[in-house]
Amino acid sequence: MSNKGDELIFVPLGGVGEIGMNAGLYGFGPPKARKWIMVDLGMGFASEEHLPGVDLMYPDLSFAEEHRKDILGILITHGHEDHIGAIGEMWPKLKVPIYATRFTKNLIEARRLGEPGAPKVDMREVPADGRLQLGPFSIEYVPVAHSIPEANALAIRTPLGMVLHTGDWKLDDTPVAGNSTSEETFTRLGEEGVLALVCDSTNVTREGRSPSESEVSQHLAELIRNAPHRVAVTTFASNVARMRAVCLAAQACGRDVVAVGRAMDRVIDVARECGYLDGLPEIRGAEAYGYLPREKVVALLTGSQGEPRAALARVSREEHPEIALAAGDRVIFSSRAIPGNERAVGAIINDLIEAGIEVITDRTELVHVSGHPRRDEMAAMYRWTKPQIAVPVHGEALHLAEHATFARKQGVEKVMKARNGTLIRLAPGEPEIVTRVKSGRVYKDGNVLVDANDRAIPERRKLAFTGIVSVAVALDRNGEIKGEPSIDLMGLPSYGRKGEVIIDVVGDAVERTLNGLSRVKRRDSEAVENAVDRAIRSAVNEVWGKKPACHVMVVEV
Predict the structure, then answer these.
(1) Which DSSP string corresponds to 277-346?
(2) What is the number of alpha carbons within 13 Å of residue 182 lying toward its C-beta?
(3) Is 280 left (phi over 0), alpha (psi -120 to 50) or beta?
(4) pLDDT tens digit string along 256-267?
(5) Are strands 7-14 and 422-427 parallel, antiparallel or unpaired?
(6) What is the 3-class SS of 7-65, one letter each residue?
(7) Helix axes 375-385, 183-192, angle to 10 degrees
(8) How many H helices and E strands in the chain?
(9) pLDDT per position as a tens digit, 432-454
(10) How many CA atoms lie within 13 A of 161 on its CB side?
């Protein structure tokens, strides 16, 4: 039973208004004494050009840190990076137990062991179809089909009603590896009463129903069987069903499978331990590749998203120490580029084609299916669960808006337009956005976490577009110039639009400025630096049309 003043709250901190970085909080209790659970803790890939030097992004957990002592645990729906990838970096800020099913738990552990200095995480295993009680929250893990084993929705029961958090899911009656999504189970939950459906929006703009993983398996088998020479298949390392399909196809036509890439090796170890590769021949390491006949090998490669250091990119640049492809070989992209990665993927495809290698993608063959529901599948979920409230998540603004319209067409009158940082009261009474809390992104810059407002990123972006001029000037204590100023240019063109030598333009601007300052002003280092900075930027802009960044250093001798 709920007490007077109790409220049921949902606060997304990542993954709502964007793809990736999924993290959300559910709270229960009165405003000053709430208990919380977190669902997922994922990362995003920084593919945006305005983030030079940044590879990974994590959700800002400032709000969660404020309530750390009242967070009862982190519940992981499945093992994709956008749901678990931030654990290594961000878990130490919370230090609360993490709950996951066996495959996901082992994947998190394997990933942690592969990272130097990674923290020892408090992991708790949840059985398939498992239930656990965390304070006022009774949580049921509900198996769903997705592109990784052991994906789960979460039925979160509270004294004020049940929230069904779908996680990533689809309908697939023949999934090859992993769960199917049970109509019977979700109908049971709907009959019990679903207060709010917090549902995946990724494919809401696509009509119909996603094809089955078994259909992809059949097409891959045909493409591998009729290939004249080597075959390389690149896919998400976590897609064990796809991995299993490739192994079965290779076995049927007498080929050996070679896995290439650390992420692939890690998932293979976990999948084998959990029984998902039972009945298959051994998957060999990259060192075996060069000893196998050209027509007797299938390579499973990481790098389907164009990652520059992954196996496929290195192969396409002919830089991999053990794997090479030649004209007439076949590369199958059993994946789809995540938004933002299209250019990197396209560059690899172009390199392969230029080398005479045949490239097959999902644009021409059924070699990939999404792990997310299309409209017919979503309609079924709404029909089964009959929620009072719809909360679209896991998508960009377009997906969320389309999902809101779609939910209303399914008969749901109350649709909450959540974004990262919105604190939504789901119960009691009418659902509403009560306030906004701090949310945003944290960037992984080398080995350092930096705030999204850190000056390093905009400064680096400016350097990328305009270059930098460095000048060192020696002055004595009387303001006399000693020697010639030292000038260095980086990222500027050699000549201006009329053929001016830009380093000479800079040198003239420095000399003119120093000579124009009185000896008294030249004794003020800061005044000299500012004057030279302005003069250089103005002079270069006149001949180039851009103002470079400047670093002026006055050395007192």
Answers:
(1) TTT-PPPBPGGGGGGS-GGGEEEEES-TT--TTSHHHHHHTT--SS----TT-EEEE-S-PPTT-HHHHH
(2) 16
(3) beta
(4) 999 999 999 999
(5) antiparallel
(6) EEEEEEEECECECCCCEEEEEEECCCCCEEEEECCCCEECCCCCCCCCCEEEECCHHHH
(7) 40
(8) 16, 27
(9) 999 999 999 988 877 878 787 77
(10) 23
